[in-house]
Design goal:
Number of strands: 15
Number of helices: 14
Helix content: 25-40%
Strand order of the largest sheet: 4-10-9-8-7-5-6
CATH superfamily of the largest domain: Type I PLP-dependent aspartate aminotransferase-like (Major domain)
Shape: globular
Strand content: 15-25%
Number of domains: 2
Order of helices and strands: HEEEHHHEHEHEHEHEHEEHHHEEHEEEH
Distance between the termini: 77 Å
């Protein structure tokens, strides 16, 4: 008789075992959001589920990655089709493949006029590294200007341009970079308010160039909405002034849309285009692939052409499955009219949160564009003292009520709201009701 092959039963790890393995084998930089962490095992649309089947509304979108919704059926169908057809999973750019070509063509139809070349990476960090290299190569200069409170990724050159001490390390090289003040209106570094603002923050870019460089720069980099820094949201006029300064000093303007892109801010696929920012390069990732590991750096031909004569290669950049998912994500966002929905739902959330701000001393500021929203929590409105402890308490309470949020800011006191662009009013009202209950509770206990 034939011997039956025994199938080894795969035991599922308990939450305690996962925590123990993480502690033993992951570095301490692998932080967790919650005091009582949850294990997420399934997802659909705007919802995620833990190992016990509990449902949570994902209002941080898988760290601002989830643009079209978790496990969108059209993406699942296309992945299954490619697998059933034994489509190649890895080719790299040294071979021809239609998926990267289709994606490149589509993206350059969405970028501002003149930005018509695109190179693919695995992440936003790599996209920004490529942007720095391209700008330095095109200008022959090396100095990059960044903004305090800015964040552009976790690799070497981008960490050197990070404006948040918690994301930098002692060994981080900082040569050929310098920082200007951020357009942080709520905590204006120049002590101004809306009535007497003269765009001192924008003009500080020129002062920074004049006082910390030899008078010529390679590039300036900024997020049109500064995500990790606390959803700092500059006005359009800021960019009008800064782009002229950057170009006057020979630099290339890099618009980092890793978080703000993919239609999240509610009018165009790229916020750079909506605000008419005179950018030379645009970087993207996160929502571009709806969670797939893909990033890109789009640039003007005049910059790309100066890379000729050298070789640049990214092993997995633009691989078929990632490229397909990015293209399918764009198609879904367009077909299901998610960009205007992001504006409508974002405007609704911010208006209601601003009403709450009048009721609760803990809410210092509400800001953002579209479905990229920040709520800055403070001890009280007069002192604007940071409230990181209260922020954690609010997040824990919301989690226990089935709502997952993010946080950011220099002191970790800004709640970040960035759900999938498909969110509806009923879901927005759920976010608001849970947040109000948490604000009320924390306000009462902190008195």
């Amino acid at each position: 008789m034939p011997v039956k092959e025994k199938k080894e039963k795969v035991e599922k790890l308990s939450k305690e075992e996962i925590l123990d393995i993480r502690k033993k084998h992951l570095p301490p930089t692998a932080f967790l959001y919650y005091k009582k962490p949850i294990e997420l095992v399934k997802a659909k649309g705007n919802y995620v589920y833990d190992e016990n089947g509990n449902e949570y509304f994902d209002a941080i979108g898988g760290i601002v990655c989830n643009s079209a919704g978790h496990n969108h059926p059209k993406i699942k169908e296309k992945i299954k089709e490619m697998l059933d057809n034994d489509e190649i999973q890895h080719t790299s750019t040294v071979f021809l493949n239609e998926h990267i070509a289709k994606l490149a063509k589509k993206l350059t139809l969405l970028t501002p006029k003149g930005i018509d070349k695109v190179s693919f990476t695995n992440s936003g960090s790599e996209a920004n590294e490529l942007a720095f290299m391209s700008a330095r190569n095109a200008t022959g200069e090396t100095m990059v200007i960044n903004l305090k409170h800015g964040y552009h990724g976790g690799t070497s050159a981008v960490q050197a341009n990070c404006g948040l001490h918690t994301w930098r390390f002692k060994s981080q090289p900082v040569a050929n970079v310098t920082s200007a003040h951020a357009p942080y209106c709520y905590r204006c570094p120049f002590g101004k308010n809306a009535e007497d603002c003269n765009l001192e923050c924008a003009k500080d870019v020129e002062t920074t160039i004049q006082t910390t460089t030899h008078g010529k720069i390679a590039a300036f980099i900024a997020e049109p909405v500064m995500g990790i820094g606390g959803v700092i949201t500059p006005e359009k006029e800021y960019f009008d002034v800064v782009t002229k300064i950057v170009h006057n000093y020979g630099g290339k303007y890099i618009s980092d849309e890793v978080q703000a892109g993919a239609g999240r801010c509610g009018k165009e696929f790229f916020l750079t285009k909506e605000l008419n920012i005179d950018a030379d390069l645009i970087t993207m990732a996160k929502g571009l692939g709806n969670g797939a590991p893909i990033g890109a750096c789009a640039m003007k031909s005049e910059i790309a052409d100066k890379l000729a004569g050298k070789l640049y290669f990214n092993t997995f950049g633009g691989d078929p499955y990632q490229s397909m998912q990015a293209l399918k994500t764009i198609e879904i966002i367009e077909e299901e009219k998610m960009i205007p929905n992001a504006k409508e739902m974002g405007d609704y959330l911010r208006s209601k949160l601003k009403e709450m701000m009048q009721k609760y001393e803990i809410i210092g500021d509400v800001r953002g564009r579209g479905l990229l929203i920040g709520v800055e929590l403070v001890k009280d409105k007069k002192s604007k003292a940071y409230a990181p402890k209260e922020t954690v308490e609010v997040m824990e309470m919301c989690k226990d009520k089935g709502l997952l949020l993010g946080k950011g800011g220099l002191q970790g006191n800004v709640l970040r709201i960035a759900p999938a662009l498909s969110m509806n009013k009923k879901q927005a009202d759920f976010i608001l009701s849970v947040l109000e209950e948490a604000f009320k509770t924390v306000s009462e206990t902190s008195q």
